[in-house]
Amino acid sequence: MTQDILIRVEQLYRYYSGHCAVKNVSFDVRRGEILGFLGPNGAGKTTTMQILAGSLAPSSGQVRINDFDLLDKPKRAKQGLGYLPETPPLYRELTVTEYLAFCARLNRIPRNQQAGAITSAINRCGLKEVSKRLIGNLSKGYQQRVGIAQAIIHSPSVIILDEPTVGLDPIQIREIRELIRDLAQEHSVILSTHILPEVQAICDRVQIINQGKLVLTDTIAGLSQRMEATSTLVRFGAPPTADALMSIKGVTSVEREKDGRFRLHSQPDKQDPVEELVRRAVDEGWYLRELTPERRTLEEIFVAITQTEASQESAL
Ligand SMILES: Nc1ncnc2c1ncn2[C@@H]1O[C@H](COP(=O)(O)OP(=O)(O)OP(=O)(O)O)[C@@H](O)[C@H]1O
Description:
alpha/beta, six-stranded mixed beta sheet, binds adenosine-5'-triphosphate
């Protein structure tokens, strides 16, 4: 395992009494990256994250963290990992500092380094003003920060955040996303979420899991490419016939909208019809008034990928 690969997951399976929740999942997490682990509810994200965190045993497969096998050397492997579960493990009756002191001991931070580790986690997670308050009295956004502080207290090389913005208001969501980006300067991050724009906003790379299987691994740039326009809305002063539009190279189908506009479909990896469209509109006097490329949303790509998988499965 090279120094740049912090986590290596190989052929992971997890069964719950006959039901296969994670099927043959393999991936790496590299130094310095924020990896988005994206999937709908019930896809197998939490199960995978729990296995990585060492709180759930896999049915088969291997997880190595900083080159330590999670099953053979659990203590050494877990030292390299911080975990914020979907429901943060908080003690509401403790103050923030008391709770983090408890977490520092749990993580076996040497006694003479505990105070420094607590102060650093408090500062990095923006908890200074609430450090003496009871956790139970904090807002959900601050409670989530405390959850993140416990995940980083032992300076792990990778942190796993499972749905860290669920249940937060829009301002808290923005703040937590900023915090994650800040943390990524020192830690690699696995961000497990079902929120597509969250992955786009924060991550470098994305993996999509559906029904326990990884169905896509790509960079965010690659994902953007998949979102490139496959249709163009056009409006003309003197509209041509649909047949004339169909004759443009690259156009695969033409739809007429109720408001008189046309939607021209094309294929992303084939000839782009726009240049010829503009030239013909000028040459043939169609008076082009509007030309709007329509990008595929991440949702559409997600649905397309997951539906293709589902139809392939049902065909077997
Ligand atoms: N303890 C369990 N016993 C039985 N089945 C389980 C258990 N935990 C999860 N499952 C099932 O395994 C599958 C994957 O669940 P998992 O919680 O990993 O998905 P998820 O992607 O995290 O979804 P969510 O975002 O809803 O938590 C689901 O079908 C779920 O019902």
